[in-house]
Amino acid sequence: MGRLEHVNITVKDPKATAGMLHDLFGWHTRWEGAAKNNGYTIHVGEADTYLALYTGPDGAEGQREADDSYRTRGGLNHIGVVVEDLDAAEAAVRARGYAPHSHADYEPGRRFYFHEENGLEIEVVCYD
């Protein structure tokens, strides 16, 4: 049986995005360094899973805007993160200046979403 190990996404500033993920979800940097096409990557996550945060030599300038990923075949629609305390997670998201939206409570848990600086939508879910 297979399991998801990582997802590689292009961001403007890997260090800033990694810092946000450290603060909100308690993740840590597993590795960082030079990457393909003279870029830079930070791997941030947990022991067995992580996000690879990549930027090119131009800081991702000129990349396609992530404004409509649901209409792009192969586009990234959102990243889901499981937390133990949804209310505390929402307070942390608000404290960083993000606007939680699309709150829902259906099986298997409660959830909300927010968009961060790169246009990535993050789903935060708690399985009570």
Determine the N-to-C terminus distance: 26 Å
Please indicate the count of domains: 2
CATH 2nd-level architecture of the largest domain: Roll
Instruction: Specify the CATH class of the largest domain.
Output: Alpha Beta
What's the Cα radius of gyration? 15 Å
Number of helices: 2
What sort of overall outline do the alpha carbons produce when their principal axes are compared? globular
Main β-sheet, in a few words? 4 strands, mixed
The CATH topology of the largest domain corresponds to 2,3-Dihydroxybiphenyl 1,2-Dioxygenase, domain 1
Q: Mean pLDDT across all residues, rounded?
A: 90
- Give the beta-strand count: 8
CATH superfamily of the largest domain: 2,3-Dihydroxybiphenyl 1,2-Dioxygenase, domain 1
- Note the run of SSEs as H and E: EHEEEEHEEE
Q: What would you note in describing this structure?
A:
GO terms for molecular function: metal ion binding; methylmalonyl-CoA epimerase activity. It holds the Pfam family Glyoxalase. InterPro entries: Glyas_Bleomycin-R_OHBP_Dase, Glyas_Fos-R_dOase_dom, MMCE/EMCE_epimerase, VOC_core. The protein is of the alpha/beta class and 128 residues long. It has two domains: 1-61, 2,3-Dihydroxybiphenyl 1,2-Dioxygenase, domain 1 (Roll), CATH 3.10.180.10; 77-128, 2,3-Dihydroxybiphenyl 1,2-Dioxygenase, domain 1 (Roll), CATH 3.10.180.10. Helices cover 17% and strands 38% of the residues. It has two helices and eight strands. The protein has a four-stranded mixed beta sheet with strand order 1-4-3-2, with helices on one face. A four-stranded mixed beta sheet has the order 5-8-7-6, covered by helices on one side. A hairpin with a 3-residue loop joins strand 2 and strand 3. It is globular. The chain starts with 5 loop residues before the first strand and ends with a strand. The model has no long low-confidence stretch (mean pLDDT 90).
